[in-house]
Amino acid sequence: MKALTFDKNSDSFIYKDIPVPRPSDGEILIKVSACGLNPVDAKIRLWKSMIPASAEHWVPGLDIAGEIVEVGDAVNDFSVGDKVLCHGDMLKPHGGFTEYSVQSASTVIKHPDLEAIQAAAIPCAGWTAWRALVDKLDLTHQDSLFIAGGAGGVGSYAIQIANHIGAKQIITTASAPNHDYLYNLGATHVVDYKNSDVIEEVMQITHGLGVSKGLDAVGGDNDILVANLLKFEGEMVELVRTLRPEQYQDAFIKGLSFHQLSLGSGHRNGEAAKQKMICAGLSFTELVASGAITLPSIQKVEFDDVAAHLDQMLQQRTVGKLVMAF
Description:
The chain is of the alpha/beta class.
């Protein structure tokens, strides 16, 4: 089968013909219809040390929509012919930038009533946003929320989740060309991070109090920004780096609380962790299928162009969603 692989020695994506993998106990073989492109795929050079030295053909690509063509032993909830959606395990070699992918049956959900290219635009960003706001922050209509990076995949979904919940303020950052887009998604305030003092503007919006909840979907030093915008006993979720409370202003005096979140950790911390990921997937995907959540603009990527687009993702901020589809 044709596949896009990553070679850790040359730090490059390579197109190859490789054997079709076979599912082991508890696994399924999926004929891939579509696979979303995500920053974690593009950043494989940064986490390649976790790839085993013995790995011969490492196929990236986490967000897979497709049809089951073979099931391994001990698979009871799915059958050949079922259409499924998943956020795959980045530490396993059979990702979705190929024709067939092996995944654990315990980490997939039934395919929503959407086109495959739409479904594959959901898991990494959408399920992460759901887990951050619902599972970690327990966002309510009484909360004011600040999101660093509203125009990205996670940010655009987070704005819509917060709007669906009814948060009283949804404040985010974006460059000026993206402001109308984010207001249409439900943001109450959008701050131009390139030409404004973000802390000063958010404090004006919140009458000097700060926000009750925060989400960093960008990384870099944005964890410091989000933490410094929290009010007394505010909470934040960090998605990109390890938290560092010692660098946040008055973190102890203000009684701030901090959360880390990695959606993929659901694959490696037992059945309860898998269930957290699956429950988030079911809840968020149901909102998309019902029309309560709007998908970003989706650009279809041909298989032969995936490597080039992954390289480009490292050089610029991507608005909307790139999805490979056969």
